[in-house]
Structure formats: structure tokens, C-alpha cells
Specification:
Blueprint: H1 5-36, H2 43-54, E1 66-69, E2 75-78, H3 84-100, H4 104-118, H5 125-139, H6 146-150, H7 162-181
Antiparallel strand pairs: 1-2
Helix pairs in contact: 1-2, 1-5, 2-5, 3-4, 4-5, 4-7
């Protein structure tokens, strides 16, 4: 029997995507449960969510310099973060203050962009950031789907206007959901 090499290349990629999707959905369930119970999203909890996303159980925090190729094709160098846990704690605290002050969408965008741009984890930074953003939205009453947030096609957040575009998109999603409820 002959095999088609393109089929062999597609199957592993397809299985990886399915596994990542299943892990994201499981982590989303945990995040939603926390938001529903009004439990605080702490560095311990976000590390646990990251481990669910990656399927690993070791320390998820990035402790070394890395070079990544961004979706735009540009290469970005991330230097060592002195203390990624403390950095994340500060970002979570700021997002909580924004949300408690009524700026829920700003809190979600702030935590998302802060985690993505700092690249605090070894892996799954964007998905972890989506979970954190969704947690704040859900906990503070903005009913946007975590899957919808995950599937947003975002550009490079380092490019001018991208963060505001993200903020506008989330505002539009929230308005649409509010209209549907009426």
C-alpha cells in the first residue's frame, strides 16, 4: 500500500490542532468556573491554566531569552524577565482595578496585551492571555464567548493601532450581545 506524503503531513498537524482545541476548551471551563464563583485569578491559577493548555505539569514561567517568529513573519527577541510571576501579578492587579472601576473591556484588553507582549510563559502565551481576558469579561458581566475571543484574527500587537483595534472589536462584540439579549 502506498501512502500519500501530504496526507501524512496533514494528519499530525490536524491532530495537534484538535488537541490544542480540546485543551483550550478544558482550560476555558476552569476559567469560567472561577469567574462564576468570583474566585480571584491569581498567578497560581493562571499558571495552572497554562499547564492545562500545554498538557504539562512543570513550572510554566519563562526564565530565559527567546526569539520568536510572529504571525506577521517578523522575528522578535524577548529578553529575560527578572520575575515573570511578579510581572504577571502586577498585570492581574491592574486588570482587577480597572474591572472593579467599571472598565471591564479595558481590563480584558490590558491583561491580554500585557501577557502577550511580555511573553511570560514558555508556551501558550496567547491562549493563556485569552483565558485571562475572558475571565475578567465573564466575572464582571460581559458575556462574550471565550471561543470567539480565541478565534479573533489579531495582528501584531506591537504595530500601531492594533491594541485599539482589539479594544474596538471587543466593544462591538459586547454591544452585539447586549442587542441580542433585548
Amino acid at each position: 500500500m502506498t501512502s500519500n506524503s501530504s496526507d501524512e503531513n496533514i494528519k499530525p498537524a490536524s491532530l495537534k490542532i484538535q488537541l490544542e482545541r480540546a485543551r483550550f476548551e478544558r482550560a476555558l471551563e476552569v476559567s469560567e468556573s472561577m469567574a462564576d464563583k468570583r474566585a480571584l485569578l491569581t498567578t497560581v491559577e493562571i499558571a495552572r491554566l497554562n499547564n492545562i493548555l500545554t498538557g504539562k505539569s512543570d513550572d510554566p514561567w519563562r526564565q530565559e531569552n527567546i526569539t520568536l517568529t510572529l504571525p506577521s513573519g517578523r522575528t522578535e527577541n524577548f529578553t529575560l524577565i527578572t520575575d515573570p510571576v511578579l510581572s504577571t501579578r502586577d498585570k492581574l492587579h491592574r486588570a482587577t482595578e480597572l474591572a472593579e472601576g467599571g472598565a471591564v473591556i479595558d481590563a480584558a484588553v490590558d491583561i491580554y496585551t500585557g501577557l502577550v507582549l511580555a511573553h511570560v510563559f514558555k508556551d501558550a502565551n496567547r491562549r493563556s492571555a485569552v483565558l485571562a481576558a475572558h475571565y475578567f469579561l465573564k466575572r464582571y458581566g460581559v458575556a462574550i464567548s471565550g471561543i470567539a475571543l480565541h478565534e479573533l484574527g489579531l495582528g501584531d500587537l506591537r504595530e500601531e493601532g492594533q491594541i485599539e483595534a482589539l479594544r474596538d472589536t471587543i466593544h462591538q462584540m459586547a454591544k452585539f450581545i447586549q442587542k441580542r439579549k433585548k
